[in-house]
Structures are given as structure tokens and as C-alpha cells.
Fold this protein.
Amino acid sequence: MTAPFIPFALPDIGQAEIDAVVQTLQSGWLTTGPSARLFEQEFAEYLGSGLEAVAVNSATAGLHLALEAIGVGPGDEVITTSHTFTASAEVARYLGAEPVLVDIDPATLCIDPQAIERAVTSRTRAIVPVHYGGLACDMDAILDIAARRGLKVVEDAAHALPATWQGRKIGTLASDATVYSFYATKTLATGEGGMVVTRDPAIARRCRVMRLHGIDRDAFDRFNSRKPAWYYEIVAPGYKYNLPDLAAALGRVQLRRLHDMRERRAAIAARYDEAFSSLPVLVPPRPGMATAPHAGSDLHAWHLYAIRLDDDAPADQEAFIAGMAGLGIGCSVHYVPLHLQPYWRDRYGLTPAMFPHSQRAYERMVSLPIYSRMSDGDVERVVGAAEQLLRAR
């Protein structure tokens, strides 16, 4: 019999998640309601440090809300990296601002703090660092730049739950806001969804108002208060970014399982590291590659396991991905950098030469399957297929 295809990613959904969704369906409350409120509370408690959490329907929505809440608008510049998904940059355009794309550190694949420093101008309003693959950026350096230059910081932590920096969970640092993704492939998956985290009550309040049409009260508040349920006030031209209770019910269960799911991902990454140590590839960077004194003991979230093929590997990126597919293994590439995407390339006149580290990483990068539902047998099949393709010298 032919072995089943191993996809690049699968959510880890068990009976507890199914039961939670069924209970929500039976409750009669499908949109933003009690489960979303509890998810926010439990997420904030998980991170600690007196934070507030605002549930939204995607990390893209969360980034948009966070930038709007800190006052980004027309004429402003927002610095982020080219080596990311387009959401990290496009949210600035929603607000009439201009994203300024910079290169990555070739060792960590995260945004290069020195490149950020060089890109700051009188129009710069904010920095959006992206914690690539689940590895934390050099947040000490980034926060230092922001403090010296009077800039806001909104962390794109779509990959970074539950990563840490200097022993502290991403989301608890001195940034103005941090935004997580709960997309189907993420380390905590609700299908679609996200969370904005901040310790600034004004930012949290603005995000809550703007996530639901600029209404001064959420539906849950309106239908469970002593005020007339029909009465509401529009205080701003908001958006439709609220997280429904069906997704929140999934998220609450996934949050309770987060530690175990992360440990499984870490075990898969360790097996890959061992297997690929003698192959012509560069394995993903680890915590400790930055100069911070405690970085070596930090947690990697392991959202991605992205290898980089050596120049003398017997297969290039395209051939390797095709070969893996032929052997029943799904792979991907993260990412086609923004400087190669037609909109960003043409609007800002971007070229590969402007982003040499991102360009080189992209040309050699392949993301292998890594998700907590993978069995040991699945992992060994991935290892065996990679070895078969990369030992054929």
C-alpha cells in the first residue's frame, strides 16, 4: 500500500476541541460572546504581567487595529522586514502610511536592528518586528532604538506563541502592542483568529471599539446589561474584526494544550537537527544566536522548520520540493519576500540587491512539515525522504 501523503501542516484538533465547539453551538451564542471574553481573560492570564488581551478575527486585523490605536496615519512610515507575509506591511497602507522594508539578519532570519536604525527618518512612527518561524527578534536592540528615537513598537508575533526573549514571554516586553495569529497552521489554531496584547489601557480600549464598527459596547455587553439591548452609539468609523465564540471555544482548549503541543514541535525539531547535521543544509537558527546573555535558554515556538540548502546540495529548492512531493511529503517556502511581490516591488522600486540576506535565504529555503499531530513514523519518513534527495551526490 502507498503510504499516506504527509501535508506541510495540520491543526492538532482533538475531542476536547470538538466538544467545546459543540457546547458553543448548543449554547445558542455563535458570534462574539462569553467564550470570546473568557478566551481574552485566559490568554492575558497565561502571559501575565498585567496585560490586556483583545480577541480579533485575524492577526492582520490585530496589526491594523494596533497601528491605528497608536496613531499611525497618512504620511507616517512604519519599518518592517521584507522577509515576511504581506500582512506585516499592508496594514500600514490601510492607514495611508508607508511601510519601509529592511533586510534580515542572515544568522537569525529576523529583522536586522542595524537595518532598522539606518531606515529611521523624521517620518518614522513605528517598528513592526517579525519573530520569524517562532524565534524571537533581538528585542533589546529594537526597543532601545525605539526609546532613543521616540518610536512605537508593535510586534508581529504571528509565529511566536509561546516563544520567549531573555526569559520573558513574547507579549510581555516593553512594546506598545503584540499581535498573535491563530490561523490553521499556527501553534495555537482556531482556523481564523488572532489576539492583540497590550499593557496600555488606552490601546486596548481603542482596539475593542474599532474591532466592531466603532460601537461603544460589544454585542455581549449590549445583550447582557441593564441598559436597553437595542441601544448603542457609534463613536468612530470602525471595522468588522471581532472573533466569534466558535473560534474562541477552540482557542480556549488549544491554550490549555499549548505547552504539550510546543514540546512535541520542539522534539520534532531536535530530531530533524540530528538527522540533517551531516546533510548539505543549514538548519534553522536557535535561541542564543543574538548577543543577549540569557538568549540561549529561551524558547523557540517552532511554528516553522525552514532549512536552507547549501550551494553544493544535489537538488535546488524547486527540485527538492518536487522530489519531496514525489515521495509523499508536503513542503513550502516562507516566504517569497515582499521585495519580489509586484505591488511592493513596483510601488517602491525594490530590487533583490537591496535585500541580499532575504534574497539569498529565499532562494535556498524550504519549510518542512512540523506540527504536533505528526507521529514518530511521519517524522522518520520526512527524514528519510530528505536524506534520499540530499545524499544523492
Summary: The two ends are 29 Å apart (CA to CA). The chain is about 40% helix and 10% strand.
